[in-house]
Design the sequence.
């Protein structure tokens, strides 16, 4: 009986040691899939640009579904609504989702169609513009991990209002602060660090001790993880192209 208890104790100890490591491996795998999906979106976007005089979609919409302009018929809501612009350039709508979130209902939307894939926020500046006018494609953002598929300007990563002091205004106060953690969702150190995103001490330590990354797709097709930021080190030109 004593030997059996010792064996059980050893197994329990090994599991306690291995489980955190396995969780990290699983998270890294999700982040890799997320980056792969973003690269696929980048390919679809460039195919679209090639067919449209290098001009981006004039209106990515802000709805749960779209209408096919050639037929007037409603398109099935099976991917992120801004992704409908690239419906003809990808055979797999799943690339418009991050494996951390299956659908938009898993982000800030608790209602609405459950089969709309979500997880990436489109740069709002990326509409009706000449992509060739961007001088540095490697420093212009198309999309990135976000809780809102079509974020407002003050919910992008740079400090939109200098008087406010930091970025992501809607997610640092009010009803959306519970979703702050979903923006810098990968490589988390601790979810508890996100409990008070507008806390003065947390803001001061964000740059030195970022809690998570947001995978980011750049116009040149590259993808990387942007560390959690309070906005001071993010340029507005990365979004505006100006």
Sequence:
């Amino acid at each position: 009986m004593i030997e059996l208890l010792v064996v059980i104790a050893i197994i329990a100890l090994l599991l306690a040691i291995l489980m955190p490591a396995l969780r990290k491996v699983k998270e890294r795998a999700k982040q890799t899939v997320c980056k792969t999906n973003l690269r696929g979106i980048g390919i679809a976007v460039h195919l679209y640009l090639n067919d449209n005089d290098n001009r981006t979609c004039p209106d990515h919409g802000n709805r749960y579904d779209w209408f096919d302009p050639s037929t007037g018929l409603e398109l099935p809501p099976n991917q992120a609504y801004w992704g409908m612009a690239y419906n003809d350039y990808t055979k797999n709508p799943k690339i418009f989702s991050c494996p951390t979130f299956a659908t938009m209902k898993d982000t800030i939307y608790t209602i609405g169609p459950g089969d709309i894939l979500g997880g990436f926020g489109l740069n709002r500046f990326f509409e009706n513009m000449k992509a060739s006018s961007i001088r540095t494609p490697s420093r212009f953002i198309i999309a990135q991990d976000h809780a809102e598929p079509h974020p407002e300007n003050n919910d992008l990563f740079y400090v939109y209002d200098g008087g406010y002091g930091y970025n992501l205004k809607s997610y640092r106060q009010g009803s959306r602060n519970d979703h702050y953690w979903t923006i810098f969702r990968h490589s988390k150190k601790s979810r508890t660090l996100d409990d008070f995103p507008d806390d003065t001490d947390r803001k001061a330590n964000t740059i030195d001790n970022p809690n998570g990354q947001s995978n980011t797709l750049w116009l040149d097709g590259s993808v990387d993880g942007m560390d959690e930021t309070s906005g001071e080190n993010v340029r507005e030109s990365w979004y505006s192209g100006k």
